[in-house]
Amino acid sequence: MTPKKKLIEVALPLDAINAASAREKSIRHGHPSTLHLWWARRPLAAARAVIFAQMVDDPSSHPERFPTEEAQEKERQRLFRIIEQLVLWENTTNEKVLDQAREEIWKSWRATCAENKNHPRAKELFDPKKLPAFHDPFAGGGSLPLEAQRLGLESYASDLNPVAVLICKAMIEIPPKFAGRPPVNPESRKDKNLFKKKWQGAQGLADDLRYYGQWMRDEAEKRIGYLYPKVKITVEMAKERPDLKPYVGKKLTVIAWLWARTVKSPNPAFAQVDVPLTSTFMSSRSSRATTTALR
Fold first, then answer.
1. Predicted TM-score (pTM) of this structure
2. What letter would DSSP give residue 57?
3. How confident is the model over 212-243, as pLDDT tens digits?
4. Are residues 295 and 235 in the same domain?
5. Number of structural domains found in the chain
């Protein structure tokens, strides 16, 4: 049997994919890349488009349905429109768009299974009720397995780097286990309508993460907060930093600390003074730079 050509082997709407991928670099809220900076991270838009195009047959593979080049091109353009919607960041969790893409994948897969129904291992390899799994042995930041899972494939990811493994667990292993379930934190349990609400995806898990994350932050502040004292803004400080004048007399929370090794001063007159081994205390030269403190 001649293998069917997939859409990725013929053509792709590269301009739309490239534009969406470039735009992702400026998105920081809610983007998986904020979990950890990763080398050569694949844009989610590109990963989503490539996996879709690898799973969907090109129209030229079905001459019985699209007998002419014009008919094939028309169908190809229809698939391009799906990809153009699929790669948009706003549609990352748009179930209507994702369902449309999943249906196209299922359509091609069922056609493949039908053509291979006489294969000696058809029951194992060509099950029309189960999509093939996605395997990524070098998952890194997890873009590919995450998007494969989003498109309905069962994802398996691994990596030698433990940070990569942790990221993949956080994105593709743990959330599905709690999909559609309500939160369990005591604050949410007070809501009498908790179980009447429809919890989609990982909404319940996200609610628990917010609650327990805040609890851990508060608990850490109770236990070690004294190690990070607030800074009282003085008149002298405001003279050097005019932007601090509105805060004179107030205590501000330090958002960045500079840590450095210290040695005793070589000057006999200051023999007991600890001298930090750092060349500068400036954390930023931006006009929006905030006060930093040395501990």
1. 0.76
2. B
3. 999 999 999 999 999 889 999 999 999 988 89
4. no
5. 3
